[in-house]
Amino acid sequence: MSLNQFVIKNLTDLEKLTNFILPYLQPNIFLLLQGNLGAGKTTFTQIIAKKLGIKQTINSPTFTILQQYKIRNNYYLNHFDFFRLTSKDNLSVFEELTANNLNVIEWPERNPQFWQNKKHICLIFKLQFSQEKELRLVKVKWNN
Protein backbone atom coordinates (compact mmCIF):
# COMPACT_ATOMS: atom_id res chain seq x y z
CA MET A 1 0.00 0.00 0.00
CA SER A 2 1.46 3.37 -0.98
CA LEU A 3 0.58 6.82 0.32
CA ASN A 4 0.32 10.32 -1.15
CA GLN A 5 -0.55 13.49 0.76
CA PHE A 6 -2.12 16.72 -0.50
CA VAL A 7 -2.67 20.11 1.14
CA ILE A 8 -6.05 21.56 0.13
CA LYS A 9 -6.39 25.31 0.67
CA ASN A 10 -9.25 25.99 -1.74
CA LEU A 11 -11.49 24.48 -4.42
CA THR A 12 -8.73 24.78 -7.02
CA ASP A 13 -6.53 22.50 -4.89
CA LEU A 14 -9.44 20.09 -4.47
CA GLU A 15 -9.89 20.02 -8.26
CA LYS A 16 -6.18 19.22 -8.66
CA LEU A 17 -6.61 16.27 -6.30
CA THR A 18 -9.63 15.19 -8.32
CA ASN A 19 -7.61 15.36 -11.54
CA PHE A 20 -4.92 13.23 -9.88
CA ILE A 21 -7.41 10.55 -8.74
CA LEU A 22 -9.70 10.50 -11.78
CA PRO A 23 -7.56 8.25 -14.03
CA TYR A 24 -7.66 5.53 -11.37
CA LEU A 25 -11.45 5.55 -11.02
CA GLN A 26 -12.44 2.56 -13.10
CA PRO A 27 -15.37 0.14 -12.88
CA ASN A 28 -15.34 -1.97 -9.70
CA ILE A 29 -13.19 0.53 -7.78
CA PHE A 30 -14.34 1.66 -4.36
CA LEU A 31 -13.31 5.22 -3.53
CA LEU A 32 -13.45 5.55 0.25
CA LEU A 33 -13.80 9.04 1.73
CA GLN A 34 -13.03 9.32 5.43
CA GLY A 35 -13.12 12.49 7.51
CA ASN A 36 -15.12 14.53 9.96
CA LEU A 37 -18.30 16.39 9.08
CA GLY A 38 -17.46 19.35 6.87
CA ALA A 39 -14.09 17.95 5.80
CA GLY A 40 -14.90 18.03 2.07
CA LYS A 41 -16.06 14.50 1.24
CA THR A 42 -19.28 15.48 -0.51
CA THR A 43 -17.66 18.44 -2.26
CA PHE A 44 -14.98 16.09 -3.58
CA THR A 45 -17.69 13.73 -4.85
CA GLN A 46 -19.48 16.65 -6.53
CA ILE A 47 -16.30 17.56 -8.42
CA ILE A 48 -15.72 13.92 -9.46
CA ALA A 49 -19.31 13.70 -10.73
CA LYS A 50 -19.00 16.92 -12.69
CA LYS A 51 -15.77 15.74 -14.31
CA LEU A 52 -17.48 12.47 -15.25
CA GLY A 53 -20.16 14.47 -17.06
CA ILE A 54 -22.95 14.07 -14.51
CA LYS A 55 -25.26 17.09 -14.65
CA GLN A 56 -27.46 16.26 -11.65
CA THR A 57 -27.03 17.93 -8.28
CA ILE A 58 -24.95 15.70 -6.00
CA ASN A 59 -26.00 15.62 -2.35
CA SER A 60 -24.83 13.33 0.38
CA PRO A 61 -27.25 10.36 0.61
CA THR A 62 -27.17 10.30 4.42
CA PHE A 63 -30.79 9.19 4.75
CA THR A 64 -31.11 7.07 1.61
CA ILE A 65 -27.67 5.39 1.94
CA LEU A 66 -27.24 5.35 -1.87
CA GLN A 67 -27.75 7.70 -4.78
CA GLN A 68 -27.02 6.43 -8.29
CA TYR A 69 -25.95 8.72 -11.13
CA LYS A 70 -25.66 7.55 -14.72
CA ILE A 71 -22.26 8.20 -16.28
CA ARG A 72 -23.04 6.42 -19.56
CA ASN A 73 -24.95 3.32 -20.69
CA ASN A 74 -24.80 0.66 -17.98
CA TYR A 75 -22.12 2.55 -16.01
CA TYR A 76 -23.04 4.43 -12.85
CA LEU A 77 -21.53 6.43 -10.03
CA ASN A 78 -22.85 4.86 -6.84
CA HIS A 79 -22.60 7.45 -4.06
CA PHE A 80 -22.98 5.79 -0.66
CA ASP A 81 -23.10 7.46 2.75
CA PHE A 82 -22.64 5.12 5.71
CA PHE A 83 -22.87 7.83 8.40
CA ARG A 84 -25.99 6.35 9.99
CA LEU A 85 -24.83 2.73 9.72
CA THR A 86 -22.87 0.33 11.89
CA SER A 87 -20.83 -2.75 11.07
CA LYS A 88 -23.88 -4.82 12.05
CA ASP A 89 -25.97 -3.46 9.16
CA ASN A 90 -26.36 -5.93 6.31
CA LEU A 91 -25.76 -4.19 2.98
CA SER A 92 -25.90 -7.26 0.74
CA VAL A 93 -28.91 -5.77 -1.04
CA PHE A 94 -26.48 -3.24 -2.60
CA GLU A 95 -23.80 -5.75 -3.68
CA GLU A 96 -25.16 -6.33 -7.16
CA LEU A 97 -25.34 -2.59 -7.83
CA THR A 98 -21.62 -2.15 -7.18
CA ALA A 99 -20.50 -4.55 -9.93
CA ASN A 100 -18.96 -2.82 -12.95
CA ASN A 101 -19.66 0.64 -11.52
CA LEU A 102 -17.68 3.35 -9.75
CA ASN A 103 -18.47 3.30 -6.04
CA VAL A 104 -17.84 6.26 -3.72
CA ILE A 105 -18.43 5.70 -0.01
CA GLU A 106 -18.53 8.44 2.61
CA TRP A 107 -17.92 7.16 6.15
CA PRO A 108 -16.67 3.73 4.93
CA GLU A 109 -15.24 2.87 8.35
CA ARG A 110 -18.82 2.40 9.63
CA ASN A 111 -19.30 -0.75 7.54
CA PRO A 112 -15.92 -2.05 6.30
CA GLN A 113 -17.11 -5.55 5.45
CA PHE A 114 -18.96 -4.06 2.47
CA TRP A 115 -15.75 -2.99 0.70
CA GLN A 116 -12.69 -4.39 2.47
CA ASN A 117 -12.15 -7.28 0.04
CA LYS A 118 -12.57 -5.08 -3.03
CA LYS A 119 -10.14 -2.88 -4.94
CA HIS A 120 -10.19 0.48 -3.22
CA ILE A 121 -8.55 3.86 -2.86
CA CYS A 122 -8.97 5.60 0.49
CA LEU A 123 -8.86 9.38 0.92
CA ILE A 124 -8.59 10.61 4.50
CA PHE A 125 -9.65 14.25 4.91
CA LYS A 126 -8.38 16.11 7.98
CA LEU A 127 -9.32 19.68 8.82
CA GLN A 128 -6.45 21.81 10.08
CA PHE A 129 -6.11 25.43 11.03
CA SER A 130 -2.98 27.38 10.17
CA GLN A 131 -2.56 31.09 10.92
CA GLU A 132 -6.33 31.41 11.29
CA LYS A 133 -6.91 29.81 7.89
CA GLU A 134 -8.77 26.57 7.43
CA LEU A 135 -7.17 23.94 5.25
CA ARG A 136 -7.46 20.23 4.68
CA LEU A 137 -4.81 17.57 4.57
CA VAL A 138 -5.81 14.65 2.39
CA LYS A 139 -3.96 11.37 2.55
CA VAL A 140 -4.44 8.96 -0.31
CA LYS A 141 -3.97 5.27 0.49
CA TRP A 142 -3.79 2.89 -2.44
CA ASN A 143 -4.96 -0.68 -2.08
CA ASN A 144 -5.66 -2.09 -5.50
Short description:
This protein has 144 residues and is an alpha/beta fold. It has a single domain (3-143), classed as P-loop containing nucleotide triphosphate hydrolases (Rossmann fold, 3-Layer(aba) Sandwich), CATH 3.40.50.300. It is built from 3 helices and 7 strands; from the N terminus they run E-H-E-H-E-E-H-E-E-E.
Explain what you see:
The protein has helices at residues 11-21, 41-51, 95-98; strands spanning 3-8, 30-35, 66-72, 75-81, 102-106, 120-130, 133-143. With 144 residues, it is α/β, with parallel strands linked by helices. The chain has one domain: 3-Layer(aba) Sandwich (Rossmann fold). The protein has a seven-stranded mixed β-sheet, covered by helices on one side. The protein is globular, with a radius of gyration of 15 Å. It starts with a strand and ends with a strand. The mean pLDDT is 89.
How many beta-strand elements? 7
- Percent range for β-strand residues: 35-45%
Count the domains. 1
Average of the residue pLDDT scores:
89
Tell me the series of helices and strands, N- to C-terminal: EHEHEEHEEE
**CATH-assigned fold name:** Rossmann fold
**Broad structural category:** alpha/beta
Strand line-up across the major sheet:
1-7-6-2-5-4-3
Helix content: 10-25%
The CATH homologous superfamily is named P-loop containing nucleotide triphosphate hydrolases
Distance between the termini: 8 Å
Task: Please compute the radius of gyration using only Cα atoms.
Answer: 15 Å
What is the CATH top level name? Alpha Beta
Spans with pLDDT under 50 lasting ≥5 residues? none
Query: Can you summarize the main beta sheet?
Result: 7 strands, mixed
Number of helices: 3
CATH architectural designation: 3-Layer(aba) Sandwich
Shape: globular
